[in-house]
């Protein structure tokens, strides 16, 4: 299997506060990775570093075998940010415009969107169940509907790997099920590598083939096919809080 992402001896801090301490992690083509961990443990930060939005203090990152500094193929990488959907109601763009905008990096700034590209836009909207909203203004949709449009926006550029930061926050249970079905389809049938941060440990342990647990500035990676129960690692990361979680379910 091809290695898509290779993180070696990665450390990072905001100002002087260390958030990630000597992290090593590899993502292979076809992986479905779940990233879990308490609030403030550094999950979003790790994603932002991998996406080149933050510079690591120490260590090296390779994307598709290339050192990050010389990596140019960003179209291969999709990203749905935490709380991506929080649009001002007066934002003057339609759903299809928001999705099509993510095609411009491929098209070049002055090339016109052709019929073929609009078909890709509608295909992506269809996948997330938002095709009939194409002409609506993005600002007039509900938060969950906006979130789905953002996922379509990521899909339209045909990425090979998609990073999602808590994508189902604010989405109702039925739509969450559809969404996880969609991710499964992307992963199994379209061979897109999935990396998802989520607090829904039940879903993550069910869907992902590997789970990365963030805690105490360290990352513990668990293979769901191994014989070790994941609860061991989760209680290491969450401590007492994990017992509280158990009570709730
Ligand atoms: N821009 C910033 N400047 C300074 N500190 C920051 C910044 N962004 C995040 N932090 C701090 O870094 C730590 C890690 O934040 P991060 O957003 O990566 O956590 P997280 O694991 O994604 O949490 P959550 O589950 O709440 O989304 C937190 O203590 C946070 O307060
Ligand atoms: Mg976060």
From TrEMBL:
Question: Sorted alphabetically, which SMART domains does this protein's record hold?
Answer: AAA
What keyword terms does UniProt attach to this protein?
A: ATP-binding, Nucleotide-binding, Transport
Xref: CDD domains: ABC_Metallic_Cations
Q: Does the record carry Protease as a key word?
A: no
Q: Which residues form the ABC transporter domain?
A: 5-241
- The reply on keyword Transport is yes
Q: Recall the GO molecular function terms of this protein's record.
A: ATP binding; ATP hydrolysis activity
* Lineage top rank: taxon: Bacteria
- Output the InterPro entries linked to this UniProt entry: AAA+_ATPase, ABC_transporter-like_ATP-bd, ABC_transporter-like_CS, Metal_Ion_Import_ABC, P-loop_NTPase
Q: Which family does it belong to?
A: Belongs to the ABC transporter superfamily.
Alphabetized PANTHER family for the sequence: METAL TRANSPORT SYSTEM ATP-BINDING PROTEIN TM_0124-RELATED
Its protein name is: ATP-binding cassette domain-containing protein
